[in-house]
Amino acid sequence: MVSRPPKGSTKKRIIESAKKLFAEQGYQKTTVMDISRQAGLSEAALYDYFQGKEDLLLTIPDLWVAELIGGLEEQLFGINGAFNKLRKYLWWYLKRVEASPLDAKIVYLFLKTNANFMKTDVYANVRAFYGYLIDIFEEGKRSGEMKSELNPYIARDIFVGTMDHIVTRWLLKDRSYPLFENLEELFDLMTDAFRPLSAHS
Amino acid sequence: MVSRPPKGSTKKRIIESAKKLFAEQGYQKTTVMDISRQAGLSEAALYDYFQGKEDLLLTIPDLWVAELIGGLEEQLFGINGAFNKLRKYLWWYLKRVEASPLDAKIVYLFLKTNANFMKTDVYANVRAFYGYLIDIFEEGKRSGEMKSELNPYIARDIFVGTMDHIVTRWLLKDRSYPLFENLEELFDLMTDAFRPLSAHS
DNA sequence: GGCAATCTCCTAATGCTATTAGGTAAGCTG
DNA sequence: CAGCTTACCTAATAGCATTAGGAGATTGCC
Q1: What is the mean pLDDT of residues A87-95?
Q2: Residues in chain B closer than 8 A to A163 (CB atoms)
Q3: Whole-number Å distance between alpha carbons of A167 and A126
Q4: Which of B30, B112, B116, B154 to mutate to probe the A interface, most A CBs <10 Å?
Q5: How many CB atoms lie within 10 A of CB B73?
Q6: Which has the closest alpha carbon to B172: B104, B111, B118?
Q7: Cβ–Cβ under 8 Å, residues A35 and A60
């Protein structure tokens, strides 16, 4: 063997290759040979690192989602007020999506529809991430920033549903326009109904 | 040949079999043999009716979506007021989803992520269906029911995003709870911000 | 240094699956 | 009844994920 790649880099190379190809061509149309060629390996070698093609798909966003949830507390730290936290939450999430669109595409387009997704760490992390919203709504109700009758679970459905919709469309349209377009207006319209009756912006 | 099935029924039988199997096991894990066996045919005979497995997937929801958009005008006919129309729109859509969960599952989980989806009639119909909302928001603004600064496209994003989220979760959770649970409250919270400043419910 | 264990990668099956080739028998049409 | 069409079949073919089995390099231990 002439030269060997640095230790531990092969697994990363496989992940990067698969990520790129899945996002470009879709999961089904990408073959294991495509991935291994791109990574500079034989097909069989890939199986020393992953159990198979599906395992690879399920593993790809691990790091991205872990960082997403891990960074959330840091991002919200020191921010005062439920609406300010909500705003930061949305902006930070979209920032992460914008920074790693390939990961986002895989989570949104291929993973969420996979039958085994619900068994993965990624799913648990996504749930935890969305669960944070409940705390923010509870806090808003306690402080009086949000109306006392607000049902936090319903508010979360609206918030998450809208957020996911924005991201999904952006990804399906191949990121051909700025993700943050009109975001202020959207945020205000979406969250205005959470305020007490007398305090609409 | 002992007995032959009624004329024209074979195509329907294939569609029904595929629909059931795709919804149960997913698109990838369903084989053409599964489908043809369920329909009482050989694999090859299926290719006299469809170009292939993907064509079959793309064809399945044609009828459902056509009925969805076709029935919308009839449903909204005679209803007075933008909020009343919006409410009817949501209720009727969810009613259709509840009545044909297999079609809905295929559209939501397998079709929307398919690269060729955007080229299908189903996609055009879905767009037309969502486009209706813009008219409703314009009408609401004109009549004064909705606030004059309302951006109809942003309002649509919130409405569609939330609606899709509700449906997707219900389908992923295998329809284990009533789809219409808490819907009144959700509708009110989601649309309240569309009203003029002085008129919150 | 020598040697066994381990790591990293390979070539060559294997077996499943979508799709196609080519054919047969029943009904329909003139 | 001869030819055509319809609806279906059996038997390839070709692509792909996955596995078997092994070769050469590297590492750890004496």
Answers
A1: 98
A2: 161
A3: 15
A4: B154
A5: 9
A6: B104
A7: no
CA nearest B111: which of B93, B126, B89? B126
Q: Which one has a higher pLDDT value, A151 or B114? A: A151
Q: Can you tell me which residue has its alpha carbon closest to the C1' of nucleotide D21?
A: A44
Q: Chain B contacts of A25, Cβ < 8 Å?
A: 115
Q: Which residue has the tokens 């949501």?
A: B90
The contacts of residue A14 (CB under 8 Å, 6+ apart) are: A35, A36, A39, A41, A46, A49, A50, A56
The answer to whether some atom of strand C lies closer than 7 Å to the beta carbon of B33 is: yes
- Tokens describing residue A6: 């640095």
**Whole-prediction pTM:** 0.92
CA nearest to A189 within chain B: B193
The rounded distance, in Å, linking the Cα atoms of A43 and A3 is 19
**Which chain B positions have a beta carbon within 8 Å of A155's beta carbon?**
189
Residue A142: pLDDT over 60:
yes
CA distance B90 to B9: 34
Q: Both tokens of residue B174? A: 């295998």
